[in-house]
Design goal:
Oligomer: heterodimer
Structural class of chain A: alpha/beta
Strand order of the largest sheet of chain A: 11-10-9-12-8-1-6-7-13
CATH class of the largest domain in chain A: Alpha Beta
Shape of chain A: globular
CATH architecture of the largest domain in chain A: 3-Layer(aba) Sandwich
Order of helices and strands of chain A: EEEEEHEHEHHEHEEEEHEH
CATH superfamily of the largest domain in chain A: HUPs
Distance between the termini of chain A: 57 Å
Largest interface: A-B, 16 and 23 residues
Bound molecules: flavin-adenine dinucleotide
Number of helices of chain A: 7
Number of strands of chain B: 9
Order of helices and strands of chain B: HHHHHHEEEEEEEHEEHHHH
Number of helices of chain B: 11
Helix content of chain B: 40-55%
CATH topology of the largest domain in chain A: Rossmann fold
Largest sheet of chain A: 9 strands, mixed
Strand content of chain B: 5-15%
């Protein structure tokens, strides 16, 4: 089976986000970068699918050339066989639709039959690209997948809907499977595999190599600002009954939320 | 508490390869998920989390710097980084890996026969078999050359008599690398679990390294097959065990920095969150001075360990240089743990924080693998040319 996985390199979920001084975006300099949290589930599921059904996994990343080492340690070292890093200026500046176009073109060129993606990127959390890839490829997509299996050319995916309701979706390949928290337990790399990942094939290409001329963002972002500082907390003294009364009064009169 | 991130004030990561950083981060994540949540309970109960042995093996943490026979084949800087991250969790976990890799797998790898290597190394690397290293005796610690454990050639076998003490992993071990005198000269032997006359009772009542098993090894007329002698230890005497210790001490120089960084991390966090006199205690100059001193010592220790690792990988490392790094880094780690205990106030004595456990563990680390002062004497001899041990 020819399996694909999209993996975006983004700041670690614990990172303290710094805004660039001109407010044009987030400054990731000096931040610990990793394969995004949801993308980790996608990488793991892609490898498990290969282990169960044979074949090979290709990782696709749109990002900076310096993302190479993180693709190696966060995907190739875990069992992904090869990687495509789309990293020219056009790619770095592509918006969600442009990114999806690049990924869809690379996936098509690689001849994948199934592609795993994460529910959202850990940095911008746009959740747009997976659906766009499916649309551009003319494939089905299942979002928020918490359980997944393939039999022959058909798949069954369980979706976690709101309020704990589960939905079971089945269909046939090709499909984009968008992974949710809890789908699997991502593995740790075996340390010797980190060394071996250095020699696994990784091709760095640009938008032009995929025959895509215009992938520039169709919208722009500006005025990034940190959230307002949290106001100091207040402790209400007194026994439970009078404290509760005081709390209700404050919520109504001061905070004006009830 | 904020997620753990190591200290990298001098941008040491730039001195590491991409793979070394990835190895460090992988072990850091594994420790965070698998050691940190359970270690306090094990330390309190005085038990070693044995289930971690196979996990460490499968990840490639055991005998990491050895090549072939199922060993991971990483470089020495990677091995050091592994020790640092393991000891960030607990010195007992790092001790397990040090003993297994540097004191058991290393001598089998360096001095063993092909049969011994094939029999033991793949299983030890996988964590399926556990090893221990018996050098210290009840009456011979800093002076191992005085050992009285003795092997006698009985023609078709050796007979082993004597006792070892303070042996990490002893009770758990499937194989013990035991140093004993044969015709008055130190040789290495492999003693296997279950051999008649061999027992390994656990030593109880430790206040330090509680999540590690420490044992006596008793040899009462053990009949050792001839093929259990490590053949290449013949004719090298004490150089055999000392070469093992050199490897393990190298790892400890890194490991101690892990414990120190854990204490620093917790202290910084605590100081920023603990309010007294209407302000976080981190606001007070005396507290800042303590944190700044920790930062200073850890940063210097990191430079020592990194340089030592590069020299070890280049094959130019001298044992005196290992002595300096082991002694310095354990010394600063133990002092940092004590200052951290102070910063945490009364909370510093609780198991809720890792401080007291690290502080107590480091007392063992200060003494084993050559006491602090024995390393001073090694350096004294290097400086003056005068041996002051005796
Ligand atoms: C938890 C733990 C685990 C251990 N694991 C192992 C193991 O797996 N295998 C193993 O073989 N051993 C192990 N050891 C033993 C350890 O290596 C010894 O404790 C160490 O070598 C010191 O020996 P000693 O305790 O007999 O102290 P001693 O040698 O009696 O030293 C006592 C004091 O005297 C000082 N001293 C000794 N000689 C001199 C001198 N010439 N000049 C100045 N000062 C001197 C020392 O510095 C120290 O301060 C372990 C110890 C501990 C605590």
């Amino acid at each position: 089976m020819n399996i694909g996985v999209c993996a975006k390199i983004s700041p670690h979920a614990d990172a303290r986000i710094k805004i660039k001084s001109d407010g044009s975006g987030v400054d990731t300099k000096g931040e610990k970068l990793v394969v995004g949290d949801y993308d980790e589930y996608a990488v793991e599921e892609a490898i498990r699918t290969k282990e169960a059904h044979k074949g090979a996994v290709t990782a696709f990343t749109v990002g900076a050339t310096s993302d190479e080492k993180l693709v190696r340690s966060g995907a190739l070292a875990l069992g992904v066989d090869k990687a495509v890093l789309i990293s020219d200026d056009a790619a770095v500046n592509a918006g969600p639709l442009g990114t999806a176009k690049l990924l869809a073109a690379a996936i098509k060129e690689a001849g994948c039959e199934i592609v795993f993606t994460g529910k959202a990127a850990t940095d911008d959390g746009n959740s747009q690209v997976s659906a766009m890839i499916a649309e551009l490829l003319g494939w089905a997509q299942v979002s928020q997948v918490t359980k997944f299996a393939i039999e022959g050319t058909s798949f069954t995916a369980t979706r976690a809907m709101d309020a704990g309701v589960l939905q079971i979706v089945s269909g046939s390949l090709p499909v984009v499977i968008t992974c949710e928290d809890g789908l699997n337990d991502p593995r740790y790399p075996k340390l010797p595999d980190i060394m071996k990942a250095k020699r696994k094939p990784l091709s760095k290409i640009g938008a032009g190599d995929l025959g895509l001329a215009d992938v520039a963002a169709t919208s722009s972002e500006s005025n990034f600002a940190p959230p307002p500082p949290r106001p100091a907390s207040r402790i209400i003294e007194g026994d439970a009954a009078s404290a509760a009364q005081e709390l209700v009064r404050l919520l109504r009169e001061e905070a004006k939320v009830i | 508490m904020a997620g753990y991130e190591g200290l990298d004030f001098y941008e040491m990561d730039e001195l590491l390869s991409d793979e070394e950083v990835a190895i460090r981060d992988a072990v850091r994540g594994w420790v965070e998920d698998n050691v940190v949540p359970i270690i306090e309970e094990h330390a309190q109960a005085g038990t070693f989390p044995k289930h971690l042995a196979k996990e460490m093996g499968s990840m490639g943490l055991l005998g990491a710097n050895l090549e072939g026979y199922g060993c991971p084949g990483l470089n020495n800087v990677s091995y050091g980084l592994i020790c640092q991250e393991l000891e960030r969790g607990d010195s007992g976990i790092r001790s397990f890996a040090s003993v297994q890799g540097s004191l058991v797998m290393f001598p089998i790898h360096a001095y063993g026969s092909e049969e011994q290597k094939n029999k033991w190394l793949p299983r030890l690397a996988a964590g399926e078999a556990i090893g221990c290293f018996g050098l210290t005796e009840p009456d011979h610690g800093s002076n191992p050359g005085g050992m009285v454990t003795k092997a006698v050639d009985k023609g078709d076998h050796y007979e082993l008599n004597g006792a070892k003490m303070w042996i990490t992993n002893g009770t758990l071990a499937d194989v013990a690398v035991v140093w004993a005198k044969l015709d008055g000269v130190v040789h290495g032997f492999l003693v296997e679990k279950g051999m008649e006359g061999f027992t390994a009772p656990e030593m109880k009542g430790k206040y330090s390294l509680r999540a590690s098993v420490t044992s006596e090894l008793v040899f009462d007329g053990v009949k050792l097959p001839k093929e259990n002698l490590l053949p290449k230890t013949v004719g090298i005497g004490l150089k055999g065990p000392l070469s093992c210790l050199n490897n393990a001490r190298y790892g400890i120089a890194w490991g101690a920095l892990g414990a120190a960084q854990a204490c620093f991390h917790s202290s910084k966090d605590y100081a920023l969150n603990r309010n007294q006199f209407g302000a976080p205690i981190a606001r007070f100059q005396l507290v800042q001075n303590k944190l700044a001193w920790m930062l200073r010592e850890i940063t210097k220790g990191q430079l020592l360990a990194w340089r030592l690792g590069r020299m070890k990988d280049a094959g130019t490392m001298k044992h005196q240089q290992v002595s300096l790094a082991k002694m310095n880094n354990v010394d600063i780690a133990i002092q940092i743990a004590r200052v951290a205990r102070d910063i945490h106030g009364a909370n510093g004595i609780l198991g809720e924080y890792p401080i007291m456990r690290h502080a107590a563990n480091l007392e063992s680390v200060f003494t084993y693998e050559g006491t602090h002062d024995i390393h001073n004497l090694v350096l004294g001899q290097w400086i003056t040319g005068i041996q002051a041990f005796q």
